[in-house]
Design brief:
By secondary structure, chain A is mainly alpha-helical. In chain A, 57% of the residues lie in helices and 8% in strands. Chain B has a five-stranded mixed sheet with strand order 2-3-4-1-5, with helices on one face. Chain B starts with 5 loop residues before the first helix and ends with a strand.
Chain lengths: 132, 136
Amino acid sequence: MAEKQRKNSEGRAKRLANLKNFPKGQSGNPAGRPAGSLNRSTTLKKWLYGDASFTNPLTLQKALGTVEDQIVLALLKRATAGNIAAIKEVLDSVYGKNPELLTGDLDVNMLSPEDFKKRAAERRKQVESLDD
Amino acid sequence: MRALTDRAQLLTEHLNLPNATGVEDAKWERFQVAHLNDDSTFRIENKSRQIAWSWLIAAEATAEAILDKQSSIFVSISLDEAKEKIRYARTVFENLEGVHLPKIVSDNQLLLEFDNGARLISHSSKAPRGKARFNV
């Protein structure tokens, strides 16, 4: 038992001795993402805010705007055609997501603890008024 | 006529008593309602065995945790008894109907913690270490 413990302890010491920083200037992951490369969000924004010339799908007239405008108009076109997913996306963007759908368990017949306490206080008042 | 406290109203009106007790024809006893209606700071009760007193105090603590975010500590004679209090509290919680309940964030044999901050802690025959704003 003691022998086994000693071996374990030696193994731990070796493992700890192996924990060393990479020398300065030498990468631990040479195949990793190059320094200074742009992330996807930055690249997307660059193109999203760029100028675009397109046909407005709602008015069918030539229009100038950004790529973002073009995408929003395409979404609106789908929504006006009755695409439920597009309608939901538009309404959620404009009015915010429906909190009832977010919680998923809201029942209009359920009382919140606060409402319950208010109702309980009213009932107490009614009962006490009977004593008068 | 004595008006019922919040916790007494919650438990007598919104608890599915047969499911919460496991007794098909369970009904509230007069002494249980009287206990729930007693708002005194200190209460001394002379109780008998096998009258569901432990169940009652677990139910009371659960109701206060839900309505008032009030935490409670139970002190029992043994570990088994201590576990029983939390088991009762969990059963009561699961059988309350028609009221929005907080979510349980910690759940083990000796502790129930709700997301409104209330905790039900059960000690086995240990003197309760002081904790601010807890019912013991």
